Amino acid sequence: MHYPWWYVPHLTAPMLIAVVSVVHVLVSHYAVGGGLFLAVETGHAYRTRDREYLDYLHGHAAFFILLTVVFGAITGVGIWWTIGLSSPLATETLIRTFVFGWATEWVFFVIELVSAFIFLYYWGRLSENKHIAIGWIYATAAWISLVLITGITAFMLNSGRWAMDPAAQNFWSAFFNPQFIPQTVARTGGALLLGSLYVYLHTSIFIRGERLRNLIASRSARPALLGAIMIATGGVAWYLFLPEAAQATLVSSAVMNVFTGVLLSSTLVVLVMIILGPYLNPGWLSPGFAGLLCLFGVAAFAAGEFVREAIRKPYVIHNVVLSNQVLPEQVAELQKNGYLNGGVWPRAFIAERFPQVTADDRIDNKILLELPSKDRILVGEVIYQHHCNDCHAARLGYSAVGPLLQNRSREQVLATVLHLNDNYSMPPWCGTKEEAELLADYLTTIMLPRPAGIRPWEKSGSDSANEESGGKK
């Protein structure tokens, strides 16, 4: 409540986080899986004295570093930039809770960078054993980074005892949360699978010789299949250790049903294609086949990330920070003293624009209701931007409120505001009755009218039948 709000029209700021994050995840998992591929296969090429394979791996290492280190670092910085602006309270909470974890992750990230560049730029200048060792140092550091980040992102989905027991509020309790092991298994499997898909695509485009292409296709099929098994195992455990509200959202939401269907069907298609193609018939690996395989893999990953992010509601961090950037323990105070009085920036705006409603640096909610209609709507918009825009666009865009409230009366809109958490995926209303009135004034201006072509029945069929029977049942 003590941060300004970053407004991104139509898309909403949190959805921008999702876009940047999905792109980064598709690269960062390749950084792990591709690192393991290079470490294992470089050792194999040295042992078998396969000079052609070594030359290919040298070129693949350059592609790998360009994509994961350069582009991956840019998108990683992009995540910090977007979460800092879009979800500042949650970002602050994660930094304070996991400062030791973040610091450790940065150490391993530096190890990744240094070892990756040594692995590429000292190719042929190091002894075989040292070169292989550098490759394994990179692969190990990359996997440890994945584990550290997973502990933090898993905490956001299920904080476990940490949020409910003050005695358990330490780094280790937060890190080893109920979702940690399932997500670590699933993400490690995802790294192996996605790494193989990138390798298939790169190999199919840049290798013309059938022997080498078939060799890579066959050898990369094993980690891909292992990755698929780990994804399935971790995915089942992930569902079992979801909070009850998240499980309910996953089952009841039509959007979640669709994305879960995309995730499961795309994963199944990838598994079947790998078995029928690289595992049993390495010669099938063509640019078209590899491109299609990679497309289905990306679809599965993107759908999985969307589902994981979306089912956290009504929280950004489970039981710790609500989706409207309010701490659960602040709700009662805000409902008593006013949402606008709970934050520096909304209060400053109202005090500057309408000094007559403030006294002793406090906003008098009752006087706000005496403002002219135009000003009431403006105040309602301010409340909307800070209380609702974390999840909803206004009239048009992602989860826009205008269509959601279509054709409702003002009384219905007001009742919806006052009882937001009747829908368990919504946070509670965090303001006074007067502020709810102001928000309702604004919402009625962006609410869409009743669609044309629908007959405006005044009474339901059961009411009409009851009247015809004289009210008897």
Overview of this protein structure:
The protein has 473 residues and is mostly helical. It has two domains: 13-317, Formate dehydrogenase/DMSO reductase fold (Up-down Bundle), CATH 1.20.1630; 328-446, Cytochrome Bc1 Complex, Chain D, domain 2 (Orthogonal Bundle), CATH 1.10.760. It is built from 19 helices and four strands. It has a two-stranded antiparallel sheet. Strands 3-4 form a two-stranded antiparallel sheet. A hairpin with a 2-residue loop joins strand 3 (358-359) and strand 4 (362-363). The model is unreliable at 461-473 (pLDDT under 50).
Secondary structure category: mainly alpha
What is the CATH topology descriptor of the largest domain?
Formate dehydrogenase/DMSO reductase fold
Average pLDDT level: 92
**How far is it from the N-terminal to the C-terminal residue, by CA?**
53 Å
Helical percent range? 55-70%
Q: β content, as a range?
A: under 5%
Shape call: elongated
The secondary-structure element order is: HHHHHHHHHHHEEHHEEHHHHHH
Question: Summarize this, please?
Answer:
The protein has 473 residues and is an all-alpha fold. Helix content is 69%, strand content 2%.
Identify the notable features of this structure and list them briefly.
473 residues, mainly alpha, Cytochrome Bc1 Complex, Chain D, domain 2, elongated, disordered C terminus
List the SSEs and their pairings.
Blueprint: H1 13-48, H2 51-86, H3 88-97, H4 99-121, H5 128-157, H6 171-175, H7 180-206, H8 210-240, H9 244-252, H10 254-279, H11 287-310, E1 315-317, E2 321-322, H12 331-337, H13 344-353, E3 358-359, E4 362-363, H14 365-368, H15 373-387, H16 401-404, H17 410-418, H18 433-446, H19 461-468
Antiparallel strand pairs: 1-2, 3-4
